[in-house]
Design goal:
Blueprint (H helix, E strand, L loop, with lengths): L16 H16 L9 E6 L5 H12 L3 E4 L13 H11 L2 E5 L3 H10 L4 E3 L7 H15 L6 E5 L4 H13 L2 E5 L8 H11 L5 E4 L2 H5 L4 E4 L11 H8 L6 H4 L7 E4 L11 H4 L6 H20 L3
Parallel strand pairs: 1-2, 1-3, 3-4, 5-6, 5-8, 6-7, 8-9
GO molecular function: ornithine carbamoyltransferase activity
Family: Belongs to the aspartate/ornithine carbamoyltransferase superfamily. OTCase family.
Protein name: Ornithine carbamoyltransferase
């Protein structure tokens, strides 16, 4: 993965299809312990949003590579007192080898990347969640051998995960269907970007009908109906999103061998039923584990681990 050495990952669109496949292959090799890599570098985590899986998986991945992690809680740094992003970026650049940022605005992430010479990784913004989708694609390949030609259906809010899924599926040669309520569609610019990547070889479909989207799909995927920062809207969203629940009925429309994914945390009884998330077709816990392996591969590639 020499091609990724020293590069940022702000969006899945920063990768080519070949680079994505090589990254997923490396993640699989690291998971199976067929390959062991080491890099004695320092990762900084600058997270303005709450995190369980992203924080822990990045931390464990870096430790397993032989590196160190510094948790840069914004509440105890000068960031919380209004230090300009460009100043923070240039200072952290002198201390760290790589920086993973979890924040609200994609523009803030891009400003960090503009002013810091070290690699910057998108650990979640309101626009995208690329590291999550790396783990998703890894899980799909584990289950089916290859993602190419499969259909992934996402039902729910057209949020950052939906945006990154469109890009990731297009890069992986998958069809992707996004079913949302009217007014909750994914970012139109990212839709067009994904369609350009797909280049008419695969489908990027938007619909308001979850049953049409689910029919024959190999993967059903959902996320919470109200993302971080939207908690005040949760009660209002509930009746709007109720038809977009992954239930046993919706799952029955998919391919009989279909798997179910959820990026977590899950609100059981809302976007997914208890029976489905705990059922035999759920791969949610493998998906969560693969966050660590996919991010380890990403860190190793970016940092030039040997």
């Amino acid at each position: 993965m020499v091609a990724l050495n020293g590069r940022d990952l702000l969006s899945l669109a920063d990768l080519s299809s070949t680079e994505l496949q090589e990254l997923l292959q490396l993640a699989s090799q690291l998971k199976s312990q067929k390959l062991k890599l080491h890099c004695h570098k320092v990762l900084g985590l600058l997270f303005s949003k709450a995190s369980t899986r992203t924080r822990v998986s990045f931390t464990v991945a870096m430790y397993q590579l032989g590196g160190q992690v510094i948790d840069l809680n914004p509440n105890v740094t000068q960031v919380s007192r209004g230090e300009p992003v460009q100043d923070t970026a240039r200072v952290l650049d002198r201390y760290l080898d790589v920086l993973a940022i979890r924040t609200f605005a994609q523009q803030e992430l891009e400003t960090f990347a503009d002013y810091a010479k070290i690699p910057v990784i998108n650990a979640l913004t309101d626009a995208e969640h690329p590291c999550q989708v790396l783990a998703d694609l890894m899980t799909i390949q584990e289950c089916f051998g290859s993602a190419k030609g499969l259909t992934l259906t996402y039902v729910g809010d057209g949020n950052n995960v939906a945006n990154s899924l469109m890009l990731g599926c297009a890069l992986a040669g998958m069809n992707v269907r996004i079913a949302t309520p009217v007014g909750y569609e994914p970012d139109s610019a990212i839709v067009e970007q994904a369609r350009a990547i797909a280049n008419h070889q695969t489908e990027v479909l938007l619909t308001h009908d979850p049953e049409i989207a689910a029919k024959g799909a190999s993967v059903l995927y959902t996320d919470v109906w109200a993302s971080m920062g939207q908690e005040a809207e949760a009660d209002d969203r509930f009746p709007i999103f109720q038809p977009y629940q992954i239930s046993e009925q919706l799952l029955s429309l998919a391919d009989p061998e279909a798997i179910v994914l959820h990026c977590l945390p899950a609100h059981r009884g809302e976007e997914i039923t208890e029976a489905v998330i705990e059922g035999s077709q759920s791969r949610v816990w493998d998906q969560a584990e693969n966050r660590m392996h996919a991010q380890k591969a990403l860190l190793a590639s970016i940092l030039g681990a040997e």
